[in-house]
Every structure is written in C-alpha cells, then in structure tokens.
C-alpha cells in the first residue's frame, strides 16, 4: 500500500493550533523569568547544561510500561500507567523521577510504526512533561535494582486536543556521580488513542479467532470394534487442559465478538480422546500406553460448544492443508487436488456433528495470507469462493490516501478478503512480558483509530492473526479486542458480512505474481516428494480397500491421515513431516501384507493329472473378498493348468483364517515346470507378492507299463519253476527213504536167523532212535555238519549251499 494511504483526512483547525501554541508560550514565560533572575553560575555549574539533556550512556535506565488503563480513555477518565524502572548502568542514579510526557499527534500509520520501532530510544523526541505532581520520585536507584512505579493522571490534565493517537512517553530523569545534572536516563514510548465522542461512521472490524493445532493422530487404529485411535503423543491433552493454549483460546473467545476459524481435525482429535485412545511406547517393544484424559477432552468440547453457540464459525478443510505448497509443488502430482476436495467435503460434517452448528466452508486461508494466481486457483478448486489474503502481499490501490475496505473482486466469481497487515501482525512475538503485551494492545488500538480517521467512507476491516497463537498471545489479543469493542470508532462484524460488503472501486484487484510470493515462506513449503509419497500411499490404499468387507475401517482413518500429511502446521518441520508420512505408508503396507499367499516348496506330480493346493492367509480382523487367485504355468507344453496356461478362482477369506484353493493340472511330459501364484483384485490389478514354485512331473507312460508287466511275468514264471523243482526233489527223497527201509529190514531178518538172542536185546520200534532223514531230533542227537546234498542241477533263482 502506498505511503499516501497513511495520511489522515483531517488536520487541526487553525484556531486550535493557535490556542495550543499560546498555551505553550505562556507556560514557558515563568520559566524564562526564573532563569533571568538566577545568580551567576560557578565555572563548574556553567559547564553543565541549563536544561535536561540526553545521557551520554544512552538509555542507562530501562523503563517499562506494564499497564495502561484505560487503553482508549474518554473524557472524565483517569489514565493510570504502571511499570518498572531498572538501573542498567554502573553508577547509582540520584534525584530520580518518573514522569509522563504527551508528544505530538501521530497522524499516519507509518509514524506509529516508527515510534513502536524506537520505543526505548532516549534520543527520540518527547513532549512536554505533565505537571510535576503527577510524577513519582526515587532518592536513589542502585545499579541493577528495579523499582515499580504507578502514575495516575486525569485525562483532562493530559491536554489532549483533536481526535487521534498521541505519543505518550514515560521518562526517568536523574543524576549520576560523573554527570551531576538532570538528564533523561530512560524512556518508553507508547500510544494513547483519543476519541471521546462516538464516530458518525464506525469502522466495521472482523477479528478471526483461530482454533487450530498441529497434527496429533496417526492412521493406526486398534483391531477392536471401537477402532481405538493411536496418537503421536499426548501433547494435545496439555493444550486443552485448564490453562493450556487451546483452553485459554476457548475461554477468552467466548466473551468476544469474533469469527471462529476452526480446523475440523482438531475437533475430531479431541473427540477421539473422549473414549479410549493409545500412545506409542518409548520403544518398539513397549505396549501402547492408554491415554487418560477423557474427562478433559469432554469438558473442552463442551466449552467449545458453548462458546460458538451464537457466533459465526468458519471451517477450514480437514487438517488445514498448506494451499501454497499444494499450488507450487502438488498440482503436478496426479491426485493431489483430490485430497483437498475430500478435506473440504468432510469439514462441514465434522464440525456440525461435534459442535452442533452449521459452519461456512466458503473461505480459504493460505499461510500468512500470501497469494499468487496459482494459490488462488488451488484455493477455489474445492469450492471456496473467498480467499483470505493480507495487505502486505496484496496491492492496495494507486494514489489512495486511506486503507481500502477488505473485499476485492479478483475475477471468476472469487473475492479476495484482504486482511489488514498491521493489525494482523501486531500480536506476533513474545507476549509473556507485561510490557510487550501492553505495547501490542496500545499499538493495535492506535492503528485502528488512525485507520478510522483516514476517511469518512464506510469500510470493513479484517484482522487475521497468526494461526496458532500462544496462551500469552491469545490473552493479549483478547484484551485488544475487548478495548476495541468498547471504543467509539469501531464495531464488530462477522467474516461473511465483511466479504459481502461493497468493494471499493479504487482498491487494487490484481493478484500478485508468482515472483512476488515471499521467499521466506517459499522455503518452508512441502516439497514435491511429499505429494508424491501421498499419491503413492493413496494408490496403495485404493488397491487395498477394494478387497475389504468393511472399507470404512481403513478408508476413513487413512484418508484423514493423508489430509494431515499436507497440513500447514508442518512448515518449518520437514523432518517430522517426512516421518509422519512414512509412518502412514508403512502402516498401510503392514495391513495389506496381512492378506498374502503362503510360500510353497517344490511339488511332485506322478500321473497324467493331479491337483495343486495354494493357500491364502488373512490375518486381518475383517474378512476379505473380491479377490481372484491365478495360478500360471510358465511351461504349458509340459504342464497345463486346467487345460490352459493359467486358471483363476475367486477368493473370500474370513478374518483371522486361511483358505486353500485346489487347481487341476495336466502333465504332458516329464521334468520340472515353474508355476506362479498371484492374487488380483477384480479390476485386474495385482495384489501382494507372487509365490513361485517348481512342479516335478514323473508321468507313467505305456512303455513303462509294458516293462513293468514283463518284469512281473518273469517273477511269476521263476516262482513256478522253483515250486516244481522243489516238489520233484521231495519225491526223490521219499523214494530213497523207502528203499533204505526195505534194505534194513532184510539185513535184520538175516541176523536174527543166525543169532536169535541178539534179537531180544534190540530196541523195540517205539524206543529205538529214529535215524531216518526227516525224523525229529532227540536231545542227545549230534547236530549234522552239512545238509544232505543232491546230485540234481539247481533251478533258476534257487539258492544252492555248498
């Protein structure tokens, strides 16, 4: 915006200027008379200046303004200023006094910036000191010692003239041993807005109150029916606990006229904490710890519901995606805009189901309101037709002597709602010190009043502060908004109303070029590789979800995790962002790997046809379906699968079970054949890793059968021959025994005839031992040395003992 826009449209009247100059002259007359009546000074005294002068050790005493009430006084009010003075020098300060000085009117917004930048500069000009009775004196300030002060002055005593912002200075004067004369040793400049009467035309001010956090939830959920969520850490519990950052945001915003700008992911995360949730252990072997902040989460959501009950609520896309990163690096990656559309689609339902209010989803809010044509195009691609920009990155308009109203039509039915840069950035920085907080409040009020006095045109002003204010920053913002809402020159307005207000025809509507985008912001953007990884994970999710009997158990948590992977809160944290995205992809790989084929070793087939079993294992909680198992022979001339090169069979496996599928094979030749088992989704996309194994074919042909039959016949013939030979041998032996018996009987008869007594002593037939071959042996019979021999030739296959 041109510097010309800083000048007010009004100036002091000639009569008022004459009056103030006359008062200054009259006030200086007694002092001049007193100086003329002084006695001659000694040489030492003559060396000292006759009036207070700046200390040579620039700002040896630090002065702070910790409180200024009221921030914008009216007639009849008493202005109270309090703070501390601290001697930073090495010399003690004597005759010290803290006083107030009202400087000149600051009639431009840039002059306010200059005073704020040099608020502790003792060389900067200060106004005339207010009556000495409104000062606080210290006999001595020792080195390193701080002393509090409080000064109260009726507003009527401040000699404030026309409406506007005045430089209010708190100064400390005193002497040191090496400079024994009165001098200004410390100063603190602040701002005093002055407009006691109600303005005829008030500026309509919209203050965006952001309820946004960083990413806390992972894609992982428990296998139980409730799908217990898993968090990265338990830091969100600290933010929503009493005194935490988000707890303060809700408590402070409840009593303010603001527009709530909410990331639905924050609400969803806190709602997930209202039941059982888990946090990863310190190492991989630890079981997940159970979060114990259910009561805190329920209380916080209840407070949010009360706070927004009668307020405007704007819902950002789920996860607050980084629109600039998406525009500069993500649009060239297929599917990236799909995630922005999904994040926008679920935003309204998430907020409405939790807070019971209907939010607006018409607004896109790039980081720090920095835009270029590609950012505007991406921001509106998901349905938003209003882009919140910021004045320091958007042309204000040529030759304007005032800050134009917020809405700017930029073509294509899109409106750029340009937030005021000075009002939006005043709360940046450390607000834990009371002096910094007070200065921010007074500077905010000063800029607001100066803006209001620029013109009598009705205008809408939007304030878009930092996305995640600290608790101290939120406290400072609340104080400033409260003071502004009590002021005489401003009135609150919703963001939707501000966007619909009549645009200023003189305001600039040209969107800044890509080269004008701040380099400091571009360095913090998510790289192209981040969107490539998100796209790769989405592709894996698309393959996985089609086989599930209950897709919502996986699609919802992973879809929201992918939204979180492109959140604006990852800016400045590239390592953490990469770890989160990799964690999402790795967990998805783990889940999809629970449905797999069991490895097989070599299979042997003996016969022209046989079946080969292939087992599918499902270790998921839910069942899988819509899968096809294909078994393919790499050598179909040797081994066919059901008469073809491959066969497919549909698969459905219950959760926690396995299923074996049998394929019929036909062998055409002996040897090894390699087969491949692969799962496919119904759309023909491979699922999981294939399983490859060999099949060894040992087929029985007709030739083999003849050889086997011949061998069997030979064995039968050999057995028959052995049987006949043994039968003939037994007959011969029986005949020989008969002949031997007959010969023995003849010999016995002859002996009996020659010697009759001898026949009486011969054993009877019953008692005589049987020496015939084949007779049973007696215990006293000696064992034969060899078996009886036969003179016949041995038969084929018969064993012969020699």
TrEMBL record:
Protein keywords: Membrane, Signal, Transmembrane, Transmembrane helix
Record field: transmembrane: 700-723
Top-level lineage group: Bacteria
Pfam families: DUF6049
Organism, scientific name: Streptomyces lusitanus
Entries under InterPro entries matching the protein: DUF6049, Ig-like_fold, TonB_box_CS
Residue ranges that the Swiss-Prot or TrEMBL entry lists as coiled coil: none
Region (Disordered): 49-81, 493-522, 733-802
Annotated Gene3D superfamilies: Immunoglobulins (2.60.40.10)
Skewed-composition ranges (Basic and acidic residues): 751-775
Signal peptide: 1-46
Ranges of compositional bias, category Low complexity: 49-67
Protein name per UniProt: DUF6049 family protein
